[in-house]
Design goal:
The complex is a heterodimer of chains A (392) and B (334).
Chain A: H1 2-27, E1 42-50, E2 53-60, E3 66-67, E4 70-73, E5 76-78, E6 80-83, E7 87-88, E8 93-98, E9 108-113, E10 119-124, H2 135-157, H3 160-165, H4 171-199, H5 206-228, H6 235-266, H7 274-292, H8 303-326, H9 330-362, H10 370-387
Antiparallel strand pairs in A: 1-2, 2-8, 3-7, 4-5, 4-9, 6-8, 9-10
Helix pairs in contact in A: 2-7, 2-8, 4-7, 4-9, 4-10, 5-9, 6-7, 6-8, 6-9, 7-8, 7-10
Chain B: H1 7-19, H2 64-68, E1 75-78, E2 84-100, E3 103-110, E4 119-122, E5 126-133, E6 142-143, E7 163-169, E8 174-179, H3 185-190, E9 194-200, E10 209-218, E11 228-231, H4 237-240, E12 243-246, E13 251-257, E14 264-269, E15 274-278, E16 287-289, E17 291-295, E18 299-304, E19 310-315, H5 319-322, E20 327-333
Parallel strand pairs in B: 2-5, 4-9, 10-13, 12-20
Antiparallel strand pairs in B: 1-2, 2-3, 5-7, 6-8, 8-9, 10-11, 13-18, 14-17, 14-19, 15-16, 15-18, 19-20
Classes of the chains: A alpha+beta (392), B mainly beta (334).
């Protein structure tokens, strides 16, 4: 009885809520009134260009079903077909297919008109043929991910011999440098996530998703870090774990970045010229440095871990490029960038803790120390300057 | 007074008007000089002095093929001085119309259609137009042509439920138009309050297959840019329903540009040339061409014959207009 009673008590407000909704539906809006024309909202998710064909993926993110009555492409009223139907239910998706002789490299503007006179427009600045799903395209995206994500991380590892020969008293500086690099990377990821949030349909509440993902990933990694780093491992193992955490945070960030780059490439929104790829490569080389810096002065056999660390940090870029390139979703790119940012901020926090521990050991202050400050500043500066190469 | 009419009410109104036609005492006094007056609201609020006039369409059923060749000559009677009196009825109505398959437009109309009925008189006739505003906004009728100041439809604004009688002598001959002249005029025209006024010369033009073509645009999302362009109100209609003409017969097109937002519109005839009579005010002066450009509110009369049977398109030579609905076909039959 008690348990049943408890459940009934929990359901009581829900039952009352259902009653209120029923009352409102039966009574009608009354003096509150309704809009003179139905409110309609459509979002463009993706535009696919095939030879003499344009496919437009749209989502109805408004409160009512939306019907497409006419399509205007580059100013011309054009015949079209729709899958599954010309009426899109609330939150439903549909594909508008136009048999249209689009011109490679020129802009394409698509306007969708509803019977109630609403017009939804979307412009693709540079129309390029969308890569079909085949081995060649998979390979191209893998190569893109490798250049942008994997190679830079491994390049950064080649600072390891240099770090080995650097005196222990430089450790605080180097760790602060790493923290600076990661701090910038985290903020950058957040910025990208917010940019995507502006494009995500309002109903999916992009900013709320970013805040939630950021906090949850920070806390989740804290729990994980507590289990590993905080346990009674010897300092060398603890630092190795920190490196893995850094690699994971960067990996999550790179997954989001890969999604965004793959999608932008597939949508023809960025001309991935040699310069941009080189820019990303330079920028992301700092990631490799960040991963190995905590290990520099530890007496462990690092070499066998380097391969794993590099893959954890870099390979998600390839995965992201595949997902982004073939099934584009702003929402997922945004989500992974936010998760990556949370993970990166957590890692920065762990690095500060490590510096603090070192400082206690050597009896120095953490933030007041000039080398630590200089390291952090240099890290931020390096990211800023290498970021200039990524002028997408 | 009910500012809006349901379809049923409107039909009822027309039948009452037709019944009251025979005893329309108001028609008895025919002033020798044109002069309009604002009338007191009649006892039966929906009663109009005339019933359904020749060009009256069912409010929702715009059929561009019928509209094309339908001219409202008005209710004719003889004045004491021998002149012909022509009486017409125009009613401002809020009416949702279809401007292209599947697209609705909340229009303001004369007699329920966009464009409104084509009024036709002969030079020298006394034209009397009973106007009644059954719409939800203030409107007026401004006729092009020669008439006294208070017949110009600018300073005399007719509120919802109000009436006005416009009266003037039809002069000079040519192709004119009428439209609402209530501020903001752009809004009142883009919503659809306009139509043609043809004044024939006393000595009629050569008999021909005559048609009215009013070029316009529609802006269903109200961003002050047209999404659709049409002739006679429905995009691509004459492309999907070709206009049949006979080879060799004289075709006369009364062409009017009522496009808002775009400065000009044009007409281009395929595989042929036409005689172009600007504004139709002279019979002896014309130009021979295949394309004519008209500013907003400008008119002309075109005459041509097709030599060879077959299908020929005509369209705005602004191709962006023709690709948004301003496209039609003549089907020339032997």
């Amino acid at each position: 009885m008690n348990r049943v009673g408890q459940i009934l008590l929990a359901l009581l407000p829900l039952a009352l809520l259902a009653g209120v909704i029923y009352f409102f539906l039966v009574q009608g809006p009354g003096p509150i009134g309704t809009a003179p024309v139905p409110i309609e909202q459509l979002d463009f998710e993706r535009v696919v260009f095939r030879p003499d064909e344009v496919l437009v993926y749209v989502r109805n993110s408004g409160p009512n079903a939306v019907t497409i009555a006419h399509v205007i492409i580059n100013g011309a009223l054009w015949s079209f077909s729709m899958q599954p139907t010309e009426t899109i239910p609330r939150l439903g998706r549909a594909t508008v297919a136009l048999s249209y002789p689009w011109v490679e490299g020129e802009p394409v503007t698509i306007e969708l008109l509803t019977p109630n006179g609403f017009k939804f427009a979307h412009t693709v600045d540079i129309a390029v043929a969308t890569p079909p799903f085949n081995w060649e395209a998979l390979g191209a995206f893998a190569l893109l991910g490798t250049y942008v994500g994997v190679i830079p991380v491994f390049l950064g590892f080649f600072w390891f011999p240099f770090l080995r020969r650097t005196g222990r008293h430089w450790m605080g500086f180097l760790l602060s440098l790493t923290a600076g690099l990661l701090l910038f990377l985290g903020v950058d990821a957040l910025k990208e996530a917010f940019e995507l949030a502006a494009r995500v349909p309002e109903i999916f509440k992009g900013v709320g998703v970013i805040a939630s993902a950021l906090v949850l990933s920070f806390l989740a990694l804290s729990v994980l870090g507590q289990k590993i780093v905080g346990s009674k491992l010897d300092p060398a193992r603890a630092r190795l774990s920190l490196s893995y955490l850094i690699a994971m945070g960067i990996g999550l960030h790179n997954l989001g970045e890969g999604l965004a780059i793959g999608a932008a490439y597939a949508l023809g929104e960025i001309a991935l010229g040699a310069f941009l790829v080189i820019g990303f490569t330079i920028h992301n080389t700092t990631e490799g440095f960040g991963i190995i810096a905590p290990l520099a002065k530890e007496n462990i056999r690092v070499l066998r871990h380097l391969f794993a660390l590099g893959l954890i940090a870099g390979a998600p870029t390839i995965l992201g490029a595949w997902i982004g390139g073939f099934t584009y979703s702003d929402l997922f790119s945004m989500l992974f960038l936010a998760i990556g940012a949370g993970a990166i901020f957590q890692v920065v926090y762990e690095i500060f803790k490590l510096i603090a521990k070192d400082s206690q050991r050597t009896g120095k202050v953490v933030f007041g120390s000039l080398p630590n400050f200089a390291g952090l500043a240099l890290g931020l500066l390096i990211m800023y300057i290498t970021g200039l190469f990524v002028a997408g | 007074m009910n500012p809006r009419l349901s379809r049923r009410e409107l039909l009822r109104l027309f039948s009452i008007g037709a019944a009251g036609l025979t005893g329309a005492a108001v028609l008895a006094r025919a002033p020798s000089e044109p002069g309009g007056q604002e009338t007191a609201p009649p006892e039966r609020p929906h009663d109009m002095p005339l019933g359904i006039s020749a060009g009256r369409q069912h409010p929702t059923a715009m059929d561009p093929l019928t509209f094309l060749t339908h001219f409202d000559y008005g209710r004719m009677s003889q004045l004491a001085d021998g002149r012909t009196l022509r009486e017409y009825e125009l009613m401002a109505l809020d009416q949702e119309i279809e401007i292209v398959r599947g697209m609705k437009f909340p229009a303001w109309t004369f007699n329920g259609t966009v464009p409104g009925p084509t009024l036709r008189a002969t030079e020298g006739d006394l034209v009397r137009v009973y106007f009644r505003n059954e719409a939800s906004h203030t409107h007026s009728i401004h006729f092009h042509g020669v008439h006294p100041a208070h017949m110009d439809g600018v300073f005399e604004q007719i509120p919802p439920g109000g009436e006005y009688i416009y009266e003037f002598i039809a002069e000079p001959f040519g192709l004119f138009l009428y439209h609402c002249h209530t501020m903001p005029v752009t809004k009142h025209i883009m919503k659809g309050l306009y139509g043609a006024l043809i004044i024939d010369p006393k000595k009629p033009r050569e008999p021909a297959h005559e048609m009215i073509m009013i070029m316009n645009g529609f802006d269903p999302d109200f961003d002050e840019e047209n999404e659709f362009y049409t002739v006679n109100g429905i995009a691509n209609y004459y492309f999907e329903h070709p206009i049949k003409v006979k080879a060799g017969e004289l075709v006369r097109v009364y062409l009017i540009n009522m496009t808002e937002f775009d400065l000009i519109n044009s007409f281009h005839l395929h595989a042929n040339v036409f005689k172009l009579y600007r504004t139709g005010t002279r019979l002896d002066q014309y130009e021979i061409t295949d394309t004519v450009m008209l500013c907003q509110g400008e008119r002309c009369i075109l005459e041509f014959r097709y030599k060879y049977p077959g299908k020929y398109i005509f369209h705005a030579h602004q191709n962006e207009f023709s690709e948004r609905g301003w496209l039609g076909t003549f089907e020339v039959v032997p």
